[in-house]
């Protein structure tokens, strides 16, 4: 399996604190040794850092913890390979373009019969993972449904939720996907989230001896949501998502969900 | 204007030496202060490092010079903005997917009336540069010409050459583009290349006090071609390309050209 991490914020915010915890799970406090990647959006542009090496020992991962890139949306993934060998083309997140936006996708789980059940035509995978295949299928379906006309975000991501539900029938499909403005998460069996806003407090990482006082790092107007496979801090209350639940975040706020 | 750098090699080779020279032109020995980017192919996968900051002062650029990523194809660009503001989405190289491959593109020059003259439909730009627009148009044209069927490489890049000639009518269009296996270069007014092979010798960078003895870094079978806007070393013979000339490299060797 793998671990996912995402952030959605209303002001450009760095993810150094959360990433410092997560990267330890890539070969140190966790077994996810088969590569890692992180994508930062800055406006409509994005940049990724990726390494097929374990994050706990990667000089690029160290740079990411030390160089505070400020972003309103971040997608991150550390991999424990189950489908597709360990190589760069199988390393998440995957980024492709649609409607003049960068779409970034990371998946945790495993899918059976994906080649038969998710036929693709337009968006052809580069690597051999079930994850990238499902991403390509999802983009194909978005194209069939909406063609050249990008719909409003709730219509769009409600449809992504429907597609995710279909993919989930093939196995385990915890998903994080972003178009730079929205961050969408779909839970198959394991996903948590937390929204931090004023009054900010202290937080203590589970995987590294690092504490942060968010009061010192933020202003009263900041709203920052973090989504992760497992909680990253042990002194805050994380929301556990239910199987089949999805949440749509936009600039830090939850704007839609199927939660009853 | 901007500066381009590319590498094509028959064995995974690092570009630390050449990049150490080029990065100095981004705000130190040259005026190209408006961002930089480099894309490394490793098999079918690729990873990019990008920064809208000057390369001469970028911690990410320093990492790239110190961390020897071994690659068979590299595309690099340092930017002096003339079309489109300085931001991440306008920072080259641009990467998009076609036929299950990553295509990476960087342009030096300036194009007039590109929005009217190069209509696009399928591949929609994310930023506002003439460069990305021309890349999107080029991919649209490849799709119209070959649809789902990727042709052999000489047919494919001969057609890219034809498209480049058409784009060049709009201004200055020095191009480097790669699908991971081939590196194609098209000269509008300024592009040089060199192929290094046994017997290897010494080389001295123009832009930094760095010398290398390639004999110590290579084996007798290595073949490495470097393409650059201006020569990077002052004690080797670089081939100057002529306006309208194109060269196709594959794993270090020149395999096709329109040179008479």
Summarize the structure in short.
The structure is a homodimer of 260-residue chains. Chain A has helices at residues 16-24, 59-66, 114-117, 130-146, 153-168, 214-217; strands at residues 3-13, 36-42, 45-51, 71-78, 94-98, 101-111, 171-178, 182-186, 192-197, 202-204, 211-213, 223-228, 239-240, 246-250, 253-257.
Can you describe this structure?
The structure is a homodimer of 260-residue chains. The mean pLDDT of chain A is 94. Chain A is an alpha+beta fold. Chain A has a seven-stranded antiparallel beta sheet with strand order 3-2-4-1-12-9-13, covered by helices on one side. Chain A has a six-stranded antiparallel beta sheet with strand order 5-6-7-8-14-15. Chain A has a two-stranded antiparallel sheet with strand order 10-11. Helix content of chain A is 22%, strand content 35%. Chain A has helices spanning 16-24, 59-66, 114-117, 130-146, 153-168, 214-217; strands at residues 3-13, 36-42, 45-51, 71-78, 94-98, 101-111, 171-178, 182-186, 192-197, 202-204, 211-213, 223-228, 239-240, 246-250, 253-257. Chain A contains six helices and 15 strands.
Fourth-level CATH superfamily of chain A: Aminohydrolase, N-terminal nucleophile (Ntn) domain
* Number of continuous helical runs of chain A: 6
Uncertain residue segments of chain A: none
Report the radius of gyration of chain A as a whole number of Å. 17 Å
Counting helices, strands and paired strands, the structural category of chain A is alpha+beta
Order of helices and strands of chain A: EHEEHEEEHHHEEEEEHEEEE
CATH class of chain A: Alpha Beta
Look up the CATH topology of chain A: Glutamine Phosphoribosylpyrophosphate, subunit 1, domain 1
- The CATH architecture term of chain A is 4-Layer Sandwich
In whole angstroms, the N-to-C terminal distance of chain A is: 28 Å
Mean pLDDT of chain A equals 94
